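Q: I'm building a small set of examples for a reading group on sequence design. Run inverse folding on the following structure and report the sequence directly after it, with nothing in between.
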């Protein structure tokens, strides 16, 4: 069945007729599930903020496995919310970040649909999944941008370039969730504008390229992409590829890389730096067929449905590779306490770092003046960085879980550092 024309099949429960003359109680009506504005209009428009709030309130009230909490407030007063689905203590945690860019709404629609479906699902597979994995969802990571249909937030800042400096309320809220919930997987849903004929798939994805990502975390993230997410989308009829790389439509060979480097400001890379399997997902905004060009709602449904298909691959991966995921993230989180090995301030997994981009012999830590600590203590705390008071200032040891992140924040050689702290080489 062509996924672009696929409709949601309704399950029909058949009730056997009672014997003649026997009065039976009327069958209990199946409760009506809340629907998004997108679903109500069959993709003719995106779900509004009031409709989102109504749906979240409904699933929060109706399902014991769901809770909705406020994790921040935007500059324009809109809520930043976190939805938890599953048990309070499970073997793993998966975090979905939906629509950091306000003009990329299809990931948000997929997230809202999935929240509703998981809240009400009664099948054994879903129950088993949620008994082992807690799913966290930020359904709208940029509410002000979504309301204005803009890429940036209300200050025009691209939130997905703020996961190091944490200047925005939106990025700060996400950093606190990552610090406190320590997700094993961070899955970031976006959209992109096509550049035919080289860069034109229904769905692209990309793992953390930052060289400070532990090898096992990097490899599991790449496996999530190539072994699960893309095959799930392909099986549903969608074309897929690696984000940021133009490929020859005939040979499939790479032509050039246009995006997707290893910079730590991007959530996909910060996920790896913070020892989680990160994956960026990008669905194509532009119509892919004459039918989609003629019918905006059809194109919108393809955008949303390709995201939903990819999510199926994510959930299958989490179920099948739970032990390997746990082993990879746990080892990466512990490695910083050994305080050994180089730290990279440049390069990527497909772009070897230059000698000047490698701190071969990192210092013991970094010393902050009183003024520096006063200015940046909140950002260090949001990142989960261990800091010790030292005289009027502070000392940040390198021997901690977020070892590489310390240097990316405080070393003058890091391109996006917060401040130039004094390296301590006394060790």
């Amino acid at each position: 069945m062509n996924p672009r024309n696929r409709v949601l099949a309704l399950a029909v429960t058949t009730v056997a007729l009672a014997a003649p003359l026997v009065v039976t109680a009327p069958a209990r009506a199946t409760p009506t599930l809340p629907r998004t504005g997108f679903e109500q209009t069959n993709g003719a428009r995106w779900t509004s903020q009031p409709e989102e709030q109504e749906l979240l309130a409904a699933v929060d009230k109706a399902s014991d496995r769901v809770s909705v909490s406020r994790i921040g407030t935007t500059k324009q007063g809109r809520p930043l919310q976190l939805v938890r689905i599953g048990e309070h203590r499970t073997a793993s945690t998966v975090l979905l970040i939906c629509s950091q860019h306000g003009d990329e709404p299809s990931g948000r629609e997929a997230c809202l649909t999935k929240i509703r479906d998981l809240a009400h699902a009664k099948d054994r597979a879903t129950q088993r999944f949620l008994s082992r994995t807690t799913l966290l969802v930020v359904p709208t990571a940029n509410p002000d941008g979504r309301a204005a249909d803009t890429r940036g937030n209300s200050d025009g800042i691209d939130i997905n370039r703020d996961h190091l400096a944490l200047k925005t309320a939106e990025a700060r809220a996400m950093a606190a969730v990552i610090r406190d919930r320590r997700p094993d997987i961070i899955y970031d849903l976006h959209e992109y504008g096509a550049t035919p004929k080289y860069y034109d798939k229904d769905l692209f994805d990309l793992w953390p390229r930052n060289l400070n990502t532990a090898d096992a975390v990097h490899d599991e993230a790449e496996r999530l992409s190539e072994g699960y997410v893309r095959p799930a989308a392909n099986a549903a009829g969608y074309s897929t590829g690696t984000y940021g790389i133009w490929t020859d439509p005939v040979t499939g060979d790479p032509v050039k890389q246009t995006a997707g480097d290893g910079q730590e400001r991007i959530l996909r890379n910060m996920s790896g730096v913070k020892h989680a399997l990160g994956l960026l997902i990008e669905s194509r905004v532009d119509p892919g067929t004459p039918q989609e060009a003629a019918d905006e709602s059809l194109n919108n449904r393809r955008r949303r449905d390709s995201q939903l298909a990819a999510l199926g691959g994510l959930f299958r991966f989490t179920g099948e590779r739970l032990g390997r995921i746990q082993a990879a993230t746990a080892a990466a989180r512990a490695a910083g306490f050994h305080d050994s090995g180089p730290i990279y301030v440049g390069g990527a997994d497909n772009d070897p770092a230059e000698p000047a981009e490698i701190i071969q012999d990192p210092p013991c830590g970094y010393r902050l003046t009183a003024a520096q600590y006063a200015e940046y203590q909140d950002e260090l705390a949001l990142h989960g960085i261990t800091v010790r008071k030292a005289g009027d200032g502070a000392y940040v040891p390198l021997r901690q879980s977020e070892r590489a992140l310390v240097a990316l924040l405080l070393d003058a050689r890091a391109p996006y550092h917060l401040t130039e702290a004094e390296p301590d080489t006394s060790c």
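The first strand starts at residue 66 and ends at 73.
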